[in-house]
Every structure is written in C-alpha cells, then in structure tokens.
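In response to the reviewer comment on reproducibility (Comment 2.3), we provide here a single inverse folding case reported in full, input and output, so that an independent group could reproduce the run without further information from us. The structure tokens appear first.
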C-alpha cells in the first residue's frame, strides 16, 4: 500500500488468492484505494473478485504482456466490480481479443495486421511443431520471426520502443494517468 496525502494505491505483486483471503477475511485490513495495480500481471490466480470488490478501486492499471496475464477471468472480474472508472493496460492482450480496454488506454499495441492475424488464426493443434497452424501446417507470413513474433514466442511484443503508463498524484487525492505511447491523459478528482 502506498499513500501520498489522500491518494491511495496498492501493488500486491504476485500475491495469490490464498494470501489475499488473509487480507480480506474476516475484515478488510486495507480499506479502499484509488488505484489498483493488478496482481500477477492480471493472471486468474491473483486479483480475486473478493479482493478487488473490497478495495473498490476507481482506476486499474494492468501490468500485463501480450500473452502473459490479461486473462479473460480477470477482465470479467474487473467488469463486475462496481466503481471502476477505467482500466489501463501495459499491453494489448491476445488472451482476450476484442475485450481489451480502448486503445487510448493501452501503452503498447502491435501493428493492426499482426493483431488481425492473431485474432483470425485458429490455435495450433496439440502436439504440432512450434509455429505450426491448426492442422499442423507450417506457419506462413507472420510466423516465427515475423511481426509480433519476438523472443517471447508467438505474439510476444518486441518492446522497442516500449511505452509505459505514468501515474502522477497530488496530496489532495487527485491523480492523473498518462499513456506515454499516445500522450493521452486523464485526471481523476479526489473522492468527495
């Protein structure tokens, strides 16, 4: 938990559901926050709905990768949490396709052609060689080494240039979140 005057944010790192339970049950030992940095890159084993609903964040920043974190279970839990005004993401998540936040809230996005290929290519057949398409066919353009196919595997962002989500807080509880990729900023006034 980090505080600056009336501004409150929390980063629980890779804490999993069982550790979160200790913080929330039988009493919420943290209280509410203005900004929640998703736990474990937005993986489903962290950031339980009970935790997020008890924290009542106004803004969420997901420090996900293109394929690491940003799972559909976490997106669903965030959508079901009352009071969240915006979700900001470090990367466009291939794990949820069209369910990502609007592009202005995402710091790192692959080229549209790469995203279209990821969204329209069926998943590989189990047991197929790396880089193969459904049915075991070898990958064509956009396969290993192609766009969006960095050292982290299919769909891994090249991270060059890398952009970040910047948060600036004032002691009265007002804070501004900025996407350094496009310069989009939004200011959130202190809670009454």
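Designed residues, in position order:
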């Amino acid at each position: 938990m980090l505080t600056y005057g009336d501004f409150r944010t929390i980063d629980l790192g890779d804490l999993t559901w069982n550790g979160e339970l200790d913080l929330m049950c039988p009493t919420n030992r943290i209280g509410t926050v203005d900004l929640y940095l998703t736990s474990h890159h937005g993986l489903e084993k962290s950031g339980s709905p009970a935790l997020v609903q008890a924290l009542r964040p106004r803004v969420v920043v997901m420090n996900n990768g293109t394929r690491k974190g940003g799972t559909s279970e976490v997106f669903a839990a965030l959508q079901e949490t009352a009071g969240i005004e915006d979700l900001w993401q470090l990367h466009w998540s291939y794990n949820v396709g069209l369910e990502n936040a609007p592009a202005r809230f995402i710091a790192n996005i692959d080229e549209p052609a790469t995203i279209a290929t990821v969204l329209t290519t069926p998943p590989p057949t189990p047991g197929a060689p790396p880089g193969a398409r459904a049915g075991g066919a070898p990958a064509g353009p956009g396969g290993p080494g192609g766009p969006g196919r960095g050292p982290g595997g299919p769909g891994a962002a090249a991270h060059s240039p890398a952009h970040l989500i910047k948060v600036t807080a004032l002691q009265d509880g007002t804070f501004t979140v900025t996407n350094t990729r496009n310069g989009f900023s939004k200011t959130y006034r202190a809670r009454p």
